[in-house]
């Protein structure tokens, strides 16, 4: 039986191209365009491999990956992204990813990466591999203190930084607007941020959005 792969990227052209390249050797279960749909679909389909981007709407790839690894520990998680910052690679490995590739890679490297992780090994593209890449250490982003906000606060922060109103955020998360406001202002207090602009800048620096 061919290994089963689920794709996640908010650019349909990319997922369609990857699907056509992978289908001779793998069963592509489908593709999704945001992190929330990815989590739901992965829990439903339970693929062998999830090939996903980091920058996705509604729920970014790192936070989606955290949820997936907690619930699908046997699924192999591979990031395919334009982001080659070693801090991001280290964070991806820390949450449980076993592969990290850059979108500029060729099909041979993509296939090598997938086959390597299916054998139970890690595959990190040579374009980003370095001394700082270690899945066993908590490495904060350069110039930043480690993050002290909760997973729910991260979700609220991403949606707000994407330009959604508190009412829209409440609808996506199925909570009250009062709950959204509580999380927003608690974050601002804990992170010592004074304005909405500073909160959004924080989200960008931390690659939450």
Layout of SSEs?
Elements: E1 4-8, H1 12-22, E2 27-32, H2 35-45, E3 49-52, H3 61-71, E4 76-81, H4 86-95, E5 99-102, H5 107-118, E6 123-124, H6 151-161, H7 166-173, H8 177-190, H9 196-205
Describe the structure concisely.
It contains 9 helices and 6 strands.
Word description of this protein:
- A six-stranded parallel beta sheet has the order 2-1-3-4-5-6, with helices on both faces.
- The chain has helices at 12-22, 35-45, 61-71, 86-95, 107-118, 151-161, 166-173, 177-190, 196-205, and strands spanning 4-8, 27-32, 49-52, 76-81, 99-102, 123-124.
- It is of the alpha/beta class and 209 residues long.
- Helix 6 packs across helix 9.
- The radius of gyration is 17 Å and the shape is elongated.
- The protein is built from nine helices and six strands, in the order E-H-E-H-E-H-E-H-E-H-E-H-H-H-H.
Keywords:
209 residues, alpha/beta, six-stranded parallel sheet, 13% strand
Strand content: 5-15%
Which regions have little confidence, pLDDT < 50, spanning 5+ residues? 131-146
Determine the number of helices (DSSP H or I, runs of at least 4 residues).
9
Helicity range: 40-55%
Q: Let me know the number of strands.
A: 6
How would you sum up the major sheet?
6 strands, parallel
Instruction: Round the mean pLDDT to the nearest integer and report it.
Output: 86
The global form is elongated
